[in-house]
Amino acid sequence: MKNNTAYIRELAALAPIIPVLVVEDVAHAVPLAEALVRGGLPVLEVTLRTPAALGVIAAMATVAGARVGAGTLVTIADVEAAKAAGATFGVTPGSPVALVDACLAAGLPLLPGAATATEAMTLQARGFEVLKFFPAEGAGGIKTLKGLGGPLPGLSFCPTGGVTPENARDYLALSNVVCAGGSWIAPSNLVKAGKWDEIEERARHAAALPR
Questions:
Q1: In the CATH hierarchy, which top-level class contains the domain 2-207?
Q2: Is 83 known to be catalytic?
Q3: DSSP state, 165?
Q4: Helix, strand, coil: what percent of the chain each, to 5?
Q5: 19 with 186: CB under 8 angstroms?
Q6: Which of 10, 24, 34, 45 is catalytic?
Q7: 47 forms bridges with which residues in the sheet?
Q8: SS3 111
Q9: Which of 132, 143, 146, 201 is catalytic?
């Protein structure tokens, strides 16, 4: 699992925030990815929540500097489709054994989801060292991550779910947080309206967050 961990750590080091993207129109994919890359956020998580998502991944994968992954992987079919579309990593909300096995079999680097110590320890035993902490605020947020840091010093987290411009700094200040996922950088209303300059500016502010 060293290669998986090395790749995910490499992605996490590129920017403090990974934009979590819900895109309904493939025509928006390239200008959106270009705006985010220009703003300093090259790692993009495209959620498989719309019929256009796989086409969006394929289009974004053509953008220079973009590192495109698929989020909301929940089935084995999702894993296979995301890899075929050009996703270079996957993100799951939770980590059932069959889903993790499918990602490993497909050679898709994985940021697996965990919300409890048991889930985190189970993934650690399988060789994963960087986990998605989801849903971050719902699972106890900063207090829970601080609590996990003591007994599980070998794990790092990417909290996602309820991370906002107001609390992102506090999450990123934790020693066991390597980056965070956020949907505020490119909300659907700005994407639908083609507000690429505004999205780029939001990305620029997020990229400048200290950690």
A1: alpha beta
A2: no
A3: T
A4: 45, 15, 40
A5: yes
A6: 45
A7: 71
A8: strand
A9: 132
Q: Angle, to 10 degrees, between the axis of helix 29-38 and the axis of helix 196-207?
A: 40
Q: What's the pTM?
A: 0.97
> Looking at the DSSP assignment, which residues form a beta bridge with residue 69?
45, 89
Number of DSSP helices (H) and strands (E) in the chain, helices first: 10, 9
The structural domains of the chain, with segments of one domain joined by +, span 2-207
If you count them, how many residues does the chain have? 211
What type of residue is 56? V
Placement of tokens 């639908």 in the chain: 192
Give the 3-state secondary structure of the chain. CHHHHHHHHHHHHHCCEEEEECCCCHHHHHHHHHHHHHCCCCEEEEECCCCCHHHHHHHHCCCCCCEEEEECCCCHHHHHHHHHHCCCEEECCCCCHHHHHHHHHHCCCEECEECCHHHHHHHHHCCCCEEEECCCCCCCHHHHHHHHHCCCCCCEEEEECCCCCCCHHHHHCCCCECCEEECCCCCHHHHHCCCHHHHHHHHHHHHCCCC
pLDDT (tens, 9 = 90+) of the chain, 211 residues, equals: 557 999 999 999 999 999 999 999 999 999 999 999 999 999 999 999 999 999 999 999 999 999 999 999 999 999 999 999 999 999 999 999 999 999 999 999 999 999 999 999 999 999 999 999 999 999 999 999 999 999 999 999 999 999 999 999 999 999 999 999 999 999 999 999 999 999 999 999 999 999 9
Task: Mark whether 201 is an active-site residue.
Answer: no
